[in-house]
Design brief:
Length: 201
């Protein structure tokens, strides 16, 4: 018998990470563009220039904010905890909640619980009610998630964050900051020049 040796474990590059910390006035207080030791100048900054699918973190921006602002729903509004028809290419009902829980056509939950439990069914139902155009207008326009495209005008992208390209952590930090200030997104400030007199040090 002849044996051939081959590696059992596939070696893959180390996982990467990125983070942006921003205050409510748009000042970037901290940014991590990647994991590991810095080895080059002007290298890839994943916090600002890498775009990834946001998943459930898009729901407050693309669904709940427009739904509440445009009076399609309120904090206490009860919404059907069940998917929408034709979510899947075969015409099936979706999306499902965590743990592959489809919910039920007879089940209703309020918006507060849907946000706390990060249900997928409820934002899909709200999208069906208010329309993809309004949701897209808020996400792409008001919140400036400008790597959302016409192809993202669907429940997979806007209700559960399965976008075609994605968002950066810088974009998401800026978008979420507006929820506290209730104003439009302002230009990000990364560098601030501080002038301090010696007498005050």
């Amino acid at each position: 018998t002849e044996y051939h040796s081959r590696p059992i474990i596939k070696i893959v590059p180390d996982a990467q990470s990125a983070m942006t910390i921003m205050d409510y006035s748009g000042r970037v207080l901290g940014m991590i563009g990647g994991a590991g030791e810095k080895t080059e100048n002007r290298g890839l900054n994943r916090a600002a220039n890498s775009y990834r699918q946001p998943g459930s973190s898009i729901k407050p921006l693309s669904v709940y904010t427009p739904a509440i602002e445009e009076k399609y729903a309120y904090w206490s509004t009860r919404v059907k905890n069940y998917g929408i028809p034709h979510y899947y290419s075969d015409g099936g009902v979706g999306p499902v909640n965590y743990g592959n829980d489809p919910g039920s056509p007879d089940s209703y939950v309020n918006v507060q619980k849907a946000i706390c439990k990060s249900y997928n069914t409820v934002p899909a139902q709200l999208l069906k009610k208010m329309g993809y155009e309004l949701s897209f207008k808020y996400a792409n326009g008001k919140f400036r998630l400008d790597h959302l495209y016409d192809v993202d005008k669907n429940a997979s992208s806007l209700a559960v964050g399965g976008t075609s390209k994605g968002v950066s952590t810088l974009q998401m930090a800026a978008a979420y900051a507006t929820l506290e200030t209730a104003v439009n997104i302002t230009t990000h400030t990364v560098t601030i020049r501080l002038q301090i007199q010696a007498d005050y040090i």
